[in-house]
Automatic annotation (TrEMBL):
Divalent metal ions. Mg(2+) is the most effective. The lineage of its organism: Bacteria, Bacillati, Actinomycetota, Actinomycetes, Micrococcales. This is NagD protein. The active site is at 17 (nucleophile), 19 (proton donor). Belongs to the HAD-like hydrolase superfamily. Its cofactor is Mg(2+). Mg(2+) binds at residues 17, 19, 213. Substrate binds at residue 188. InterPro entries: HAD-like_sf (IPR036412), HAD-SF_hydro_IIA (IPR006357), HAD_sf (IPR023214). One of its GO terms (cellular component) is cytoplasm.
């Protein structure tokens, strides 16, 4: 038995990134559907994690299904859901001014939050393709007036067919420059996102693994949360990228297909 196999013997719960691990540009990565089916058939608890806060879990489940990946919506944990869970624990039934899309708005609504522009306790910034000057100005003024600044994720850019798009992290930086206030960011690489995911499925760090394709989010957050970390090379990380960091994942694999049981 290989060392990686021995280490995985203790794993009872699985967390996995979505883009670059299960799908790449809406195409399924070979072995991903089979691994998810194996977990389902063997009764292993798992969650698919994503920093995407635009879509609801139901939307993402449908998008994955269109790519040939079957993931029930209750098996998807987004930065929007993690943010809503964090804020509910901080201040249940509170108020928020929100910049974001359906994924974030729905998550906060389901957590009992009231959306308002009148003296909200929180300003919450998530990903959207429709940032407006008026909305950003209002967020800046509310933060200057004492609202707490929360963000779903730190990703500065997002992908598109035409090239990178400015994303949540870039907007966070704009607001920070105008207010002097840094946001509390809930999504990866904050281990908070992993802890909230583990709470959802009743997992513990000593028997949970995280599969990701990025050293700067998936692996560092998994390591800091005390998880068994597995880097796959189907996303953005190659040897040069891995070498940039002073830490290493527990395992480096070609793809999730390498996690399928041997026949």
């Amino acid at each position: 038995m290989k060392q990686g196999d021995e280490m995985r013997e203790k794993v009872k719960f699985w967390l996995t990134d979505m883009d670059g691990v299960l799908v790449h540009e809406q195409q399924p990565i070979p072995g991903a559907a089979e691994l998810l089916q194996h977990w389902q058939d063997s009764g292993q608890e798992y969650l698919v994690l994503t920093n995407n806060s635009i879509f609801t879990a139901r939307d993402l489940s449908a998008r994955l299904a269109a790519s040939g990946i079957n993931v029930p919506e209750e098996r998807i944990w987004t930065s929007a859901l993690a943010t809503a869970a964090f804020l509910k624990a901080q201040a249940p039934s509170s108020t928020a001014y929100v910049i974001g899309e359906a994924g974030l708005l729905t998550a906060l609504h389901d957590a009992g939050f009231i959306m308002t522009e009148a003296n909200p306790e929180f300003v919450v910034v998530g990903e959207t393709r429709n940032y407006s000057f008026d909305a950003l100005t209002k967020a800046i003024r509310l933060i200057n007036n004492g609202a707490r600044f929360i963000s779903t994720n730190p990703d500065a850019t997002g992908p598109s067919a035409e090239g990178p798009l400015p994303a949540t992290g870039a907007v966070n930086a704009l607001i920070t420059k105008a207010t002097g206030k840094e946001p509390y960011v809930v999504g990866k690489p904050n281990p908070m996102m992993f802890r909230s995911a583990m709470n959802k499925i009743g997992a513990h760090s000593e028997n949970t693994a995280m599969i990701g394709d990025r050293m700067d989010t998936d692996i560092v957050a998994g390591m800091e949360a005390g998880l068994h970390t597995i880097l796959v090379r189907t996303g953005i990380s190659d040897d040069a990228e891995i070498a940039r960091y002073p830490f290493r994942p527990n395992e480096i694999l070609g793809s999730v297909a390498d996690l399928l049981p041997s026949k």
